[in-house]
Each structure stands twice: as C-alpha cells, then as structure tokens.
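Thread: "does anyone have the structure for this chain?"

Original post by V.I.:
We have the sequence but no experimental structure in hand. Need at least a predicted one for the grant figures.
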Amino acid sequence: MVKTRLANKKLFGMLALSMGFISKEHLQECIEIQESSTIPRRLGSILLSRGYIKEAQLKEILALQGKTGETTDLPQSKSDRRRLIGEILIERGFIDRSTLDATVKHQQLLRKTGISPRIGEILIALGKINPEQLKEALNLQATA
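Reply from O.Q.:
Generated one for you, tokens below.
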C-alpha cells in the first residue's frame, strides 16, 4: 500500500512537472511538506493551496491519471474540499503568501517539538491577524 501511494505521488508530481505546470523546486517543496505533515495531505491539494497549480490544472492531471489506470481519492471539485484557512486569509487580504509560508514553516517546527497549534493561532500570536479576522475567515471556511 505504501508503494502504491508513493507511485501515485510520483505519478501526480511527474505529470504536473512534465506538463509544465510546476518546477522541480515546487515539486520537491510540496513533497517535503506532505511528508512532514502530521495529517494526510494529497500532493495535488498542497500544490493547489500553495498557488503552484490552478484548479483546472489539478483536474487536468487527475483526468490524465484516470486514463493511465491510476486512482486517486482527491476531491474532484472545489465544493467537495474544505478550503484551507490560510488561503482564505490571503484572499481576504489579511496576510500575504510569504506570511503564510513563514507561518507554515513555524508550525512545522513546533510540531516537531510535540506542539500542534493551528495556523490561525500562530498568526494571532505573531500579531499578523487579529481574532476578528480569524473569526471572519473561519466563518467563510464553514460556509464554503
């Protein structure tokens, strides 16, 4: 089973790379994020959340994977997927991509020490957003 997951990850990443959607550096970065995550995350979801691919490109890769006989349990539409809070905060203009990236790295370091704060908690603690902004983003996430 682990071998199958690894093959699917490589296939998805290699397809995205060969189609010119992402760079080798973006692929490596997202694989590292996936491997260090304490919760299971699909490579396509990570690439999408980081802004390296678009929804249409994700669907194109998934369609191509289906043609090769590979299967995936990635949601097929945006409405099937819970939106990430960091992406909502960026969309609302509360933070920028570099702030989110730095916060995710900070979160990963904390997780290695056994502490598992949420992105919103870290952003508030660092003074990057206020509780009202987080509440607004969480409400948007809940209705998405």
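V.I.: this helps a lot. Residues 12 and 125 are 36 Å apart (CA to CA).
O.Q.: and The two ends are 32 Å apart (CA to CA).
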